[in-house]
Amino acid sequence: MIKSMTGFGKSVCELSTKRITIELKSLNSKQLDINTRIPGLYREKDLAIRNEISQRLQRGKIDVTFYVESMMPDKISQVNEEVISTYHQQLKNLADKLGLADNTDFLRIIMPLPDTLKSPQAELDDTEWKAVHKSLIEALDQLNNFRVQEGVSMQKDVTERNESIAALLSQVEPFEEQRTEKIRSRIKDSLAELGTNGNIDENRFEQELIYYIEKLDISEEKVRLSNHLQYFVETLNEEGPVGKKLGFISQEIGREINTLGSKANDANIQRLVVKMKDDLEKIKEQILNIL
């Protein structure tokens, strides 16, 4: 069962002091490309977040965003008693020296001075991280489910187009049989125009005709194309990421279709080849988004 690389997942982590919303968005990409937008409090877990995503999503352009709604701030400023006491002692000594009144409002003077308040760095505790990590897993599971649902419709589409190419290939054979007679008639008509009046060696004519037809023979291309189409279906049903593998198979399918068209030498077969190419291009568009 294939998966799409496109997906969206969302989870909400409710804590006593905050509400954290985790959103994940995935788009197609040749490799795994993770972009995180998370608050500073969770930066220490950035590597753990990336490892979790890489194990579960494997490939794609992934955007990870944490939205935090706090009931109270992570950093609460505290009064720096030691600094204030030092300021007070110095000001009091200066006031005594200058003979100023004892009722001077030292606190009003001191508080605007530097370092009277300190803001301790908030630390992420294990309990909070476990809750956030659980929500991250829920968002990843939701995104994966989205990918699976998208994959079902994509698999249906590429399977139908693969079957369409196989059906068009089966229509080549009748025209291939007619092609031999058309080539024979065309060559004889050309000889008649040259004025041979039928004076030709029939054995030599047949030998040259066989040699010419062998150059235009498409039997091998038909067999290889049929095998590639079957291999494509088998790969679709494999477990795990198959997008890159399907891309390689589609290239081989395209190569055989192109050779078929170049050797066809028949308008009816060429029309079938054009239809095959159209279906193949649609398949390639879908493969770009298959995990």
From TrEMBL:
Required cofactor names: a divalent metal cation
Domain annotation Endoribonuclease YicC-like N-terminal: ranges: 2-155
Example of a GO MF term: hydrolase activity
Ranges for domain Endoribonuclease YicC-like C-terminal: 174-290
Source superkingdom: Bacteria
Key words of the record: Endonuclease, Hydrolase, Nuclease
InterPro entries cross-referenced by the UniProt entry: YicC-like_C (IPR013551), YicC-like_N (IPR013527), YicC/YloC-like (IPR005229)
Similarity annotation: Belongs to the YicC/YloC family.
Protein name: YicC family protein
Protein species of origin: Marinilabilia rubra
Source organism phylogeny: Bacteria, Pseudomonadati, Bacteroidota, Bacteroidia, Marinilabiliales
